[in-house]
């Protein structure tokens, strides 16, 4: 399954000059964990997340501490440019969703921008991946059968059974379209694995 099958597009973005408060409101209102940061030409220059916006902007309450709290050593950040992460990992529309999940797990990031021809065309988050994983088996089966109908018309090459995201394709020994059916099935959101079995 490709990233383009799942990404949110168009991606919500900000510029480096966007205020911290403006970016915080955007993340809250759009219910997203991070947004790409673009320059004036629309090129990706960073990404800013919830934790980035909180860094250095939440000051201690002196009434909540027994001892006096020292004032911050530097001015509080005002713009996204002061808190964003400039080292951005990116995906491409035809990146494998498996690679996206692995990269998020290893790096700890919650969202990855999707770039094509140097421009941000979407974003994929952990929440997007979880939505795919949580799809019901009957939804997956209906999606597989719909794709078979589009590709093969009335001559569907196999029967479809889904359990916990694992799709079993059952075909007769004379079916010559089983490989194509497997490829179509693997592209369906929520499919964990595809198995085949032959009718006897």
Which key terms come to mind for this protein?
2 domains; 22% strand; 200 residues; elongated; 8 strands; CBS-domain; Histidine-containing Protein, Chain: A; 3-stranded mixed beta sheet; alpha/beta
Strand count: 8
**Fraction of residues in β-strands:** 15-25%
Please tell me the total number of domains: 2
Order of helix and strand elements from N to C terminus: EHEEHHEEHHEEHE
| CATH H-level superfamily title of the largest domain | CBS-domain
- Please give the alpha-carbon distance between the first and last residues: 31 Å
Report the CATH architecture of the largest domain. Roll
Q: In DSSP terms, counting alpha (H) and pi (I) runs of 4 or more, how many helices?
A: 6
Global geometry: elongated
Mean pLDDT: 88
Largest sheet: 3 strands, mixed
CATH topology-level name of the largest domain: CBS-domain
Write up this protein.
The chain is of the alpha/beta class. The protein folds into two domains: 3-133, CBS-domain; 137-198, Histidine-containing Protein, Chain: A (2-Layer Sandwich). Helices cover 30% and strands 22% of the residues. It has helices spanning 20-30, 50-54, 97-107, 126-133, 137-152, 178-186; strands at residues 14-15, 34-38, 44-49, 111-116, 119-125, 158-163, 166-171, 193-198. Helix 6 links the parallel strand 7 and strand 8 (193-198). The longest helix is centred in the C-terminal third of the chain and has 16 residues, at 137-152. The relative contact order is 0.16.
